[in-house]
Design brief:
Blueprint: E1 2-7, E2 23-25, E3 28-32, E4 41-47, E5 52-58, E6 72-77, E7 88-89, E8 98-106, E9 109-115, E10 121-128, E11 131-137, E12 139-140, E13 147-154, E14 160-166, E15 175-180, E16 186-187, E17 191-192, E18 203-209, E19 214-219, E20 229-234, E21 247-248, E22 258-265, E23 268-273, E24 282-286, E25 314-322, E26 334-342, E27 350-354, E28 363-367, H1 384-389, E29 394-398, E30 405-408, E31 418-422, E32 430-432, H2 448-463, E33 469-474, H3 481-501, E34 509-513, H4 526-532, E35 534-539
Parallel strand pairs: 12-16, 27-31, 33-34
Antiparallel strand pairs: 1-28, 2-3, 3-24, 4-5, 5-6, 6-7, 8-9, 9-10, 10-11, 13-14, 14-15, 15-17, 18-19, 19-20, 20-21, 22-23, 23-24, 25-26, 28-29, 29-30, 32-35, 33-35
């Protein structure tokens, strides 16, 4: 086990704040979407008409997975006076994993991507009145092969999906791919758009306008990029690999990280940017809609070189050098010299935050794997590829006085901070034991993940012997209430028994069984019922 303590030490009293963004871009005032934004991550806006904008909000207490939920679907509407109303949670489009909307396949059908919960892939939802009803999963060959920060959008007309992710054909980090509809629920295998669009850097959040054949996407390596900026390219042929040279859209680009966008009208656009004080994303627009400055002329991109891709991405940089020594009499003549330099993979950036008061906390990292070669690397310089190369599949985030938190290597973000919400081990705190599973209808613990999770918990409790706990067992409301209460009590007892076997004192643990009397989600759906079947840990002293 390799352990690093107090990486990126931060003062615990530093309060993370989110504030309204206002700056000058092309003489136009850029503002936050009033009621639509929050202190959490607000991203991936999708305009679906009828004055309605949907988007993804991460780490919000109302998300189905609570404050650790990486993204649920939310909705805001634009009033007749132009104000964006307070956003509301759309549980009917969300899971306890990561969710984002790709947009409308037709007027009554929404495509939504789910991962990390009980659903994985792209699903259809059918509109009925003001509600969205789950319909079915669509089949996209090779979708599960795409890794990294998956994002995407269905083009107007519902026949083309643009996706970004890391696949077998990827040139750099995330690349942009296209999939075409082949049947009612069938789509072709995603195809890489090629080197005119994709670079050795990161391209993501594509938006394709089928009418103009213009592709809007975010890149951190095309010419002119500062961080991540929005670029525009035009399809120049019948296939998907002939494009114009991408041009930066200066009207919406900023020193921050500009990612996904959606068009409300020909004169109004909404996009995501991380310019705020806490590094989380906000939804932005122009205060007063004006004609959008979109390029009218596009030049065909030059063919890419056929040489084998280099191990590390490279970029041309320019420098000024004197033609003769600067110590000579007079003003030395100069020349501009271009050379290629290797671009290093960005190290992992962490935002470890107290889940209750949103202050940064000092933390450390632990992992298991082949550590040869990692000992000499400073923790703040570690990259995802270095961890993968040594077989590290899971990182444990630890902080004094907080329950430890585990993240799989796939949950760690590249190019932006990985946000980890920590629960303080103080009286009243409740922790969901989300990796603890039981055999169906019984109190018997099941699975290696369950054992590993409880062993970690036992280690933490033994390191904090003064702590007193109560384990709460819960079920859904299906079946006989008295049987459910008995089962929930027995499951809490099974967890206590395992912890005692690991050396945790019997007198430090109490148990309760509540059956289905304390739901945290609706029992009307299977998603809600699965959330209600849970075991929680409460600190009582």
């Amino acid at each position: 086990m390799r352990k690093f303590k107090n990486v990126f030490l931060k003062a615990s009293g530093f309060l993370l704040l989110a504030f309204c963004i206002s700056n000058q871009v092309s003489a136009q005032q850029v503002v936050s979407l009033s009621g639509a934004n929050s202190p959490q991550d607000d991203m991936n806006p999708v305009w679906i008409g009828d004055n309605t904008l949907i988007f993804t909000r991460a780490f919000h207490p109302q998300n189905l997975g609570g404050i650790s939920d990486p993204g649920d679907i939310w909705m805001t509407q634009k009033s007749d006076t132009g104000e964006w109303l307070e956003a509301v949670h759309r549980a009917d489009l969300s899971t306890d994993g990561y969710d984002f909307a790709l947009g409308l396949e037709d007027l009554l059908t929404m495509l939504v991507y789910h991962s990390g919960g009980e659903r994985y892939g792209i699903y259809q939802y059918s509109k009925f009145g003001t509600e969205w009803n789950f319909l079915r999963q669509v089949n996209i060959a090779g979708l599960l092969e795409l890794k990294g920060q998956l994002s995407g959008r269905v083009a107007n007309g519902g026949k083309v999906i643009m996706l970004s992710g890391i696949g077998s054909e990827t040139i750099g980090n995330e690349d942009i791919y296209v999939s075409e509809k082949t049947g009612p629920i069938s789509w072709s295998k995603p195809v890489n758009l090629g080197s005119a669009i994709n670079t050795p850097g990161q391209e993501m959040s594509p938006y394709f306008d089928l009418a103009t054949e213009e592709l809007y996407f975010s890149s951190n390596m095309h010419e002119g990029a500062q961080g991540k900026d929005i670029f525009i390219a035009k399809r120049m042929g019948e296939g998907w690999n002939t494009w114009s040279k991408p041009m930066i859209w200066k009207q919406v680009s900023s020193p921050g990280s500009d990612v996904s966008l959606t068009f409300v009208s020909k004169e109004e656009v909404v996009w995501t940017s991380t310019q705020n004080s806490d590094g989380f994303a906000d939804l932005l627009t122009f205060e007063n809609p004006v004609p959008l400055d979109i390029p009218q002329e596009f030049a065909l991109a030059k063919p890419a070189a056929t040489e084998k891709p280099q191990d590390k991405p490279r970029q041309k940089v320019s420098s000024i050098e004197p033609i003769y020594p600067s110590s000579s009499v007079g003003v030395p003549e100069i020349k501009v010299v271009e050379k290629e330099v290797e671009l290093e993979e960005e190290p992992i950036s962490w935002f470890v935050v107290d889940a209750k008061n949103k202050t940064l906390v000092p933390y450390g990292l632990e992992w298991t794997g082949e550590l040869a070669g990692l000992d000499s690397i400073s923790p703040e310089k570690l990259t995802i590829s270095q961890l993968r190369s040594k077989g590290v599949n899971e990182i444990k985030v630890i902080a004094t006085g907080y329950f430890p938190k585990k993240l799989s290597i796939n949950e760690i973000k590249s190019g932006e901070p990985t946000v980890v919400l920590m629960t303080k081990a103080e009286s009243g705190s409740i922790v969901l034991l989300d990796n603890v599973n039981f055999k169906r209808g019984t109190a018997e613990l099941e699975g290696l993940d369950t054992k590993a999770s409880l062993e970690d918990l036992a280690t933490f409790l033994l390191e904090n012997p003064e702590m007193k706990l109560r384990i709460h067992g819960h079920t859904d409301n299906a079946g006989d209430p008295s049987l459910n209460k008995a089962l929930s009590f027995e499951r809490a007892g099974s967890v206590r028994d395992f912890l005692i076997e690991q050396g945790v004192p019997f007198e430090s643990i109490r148990i309760s069984g509540w059956g289905g009397t304390r739901p945290i989600a609706s029992n009307a759906t299977e998603v809600g019922r699965s959330k209600n079947r849970r075991v929680e840990l409460e600190v009582i002293q």
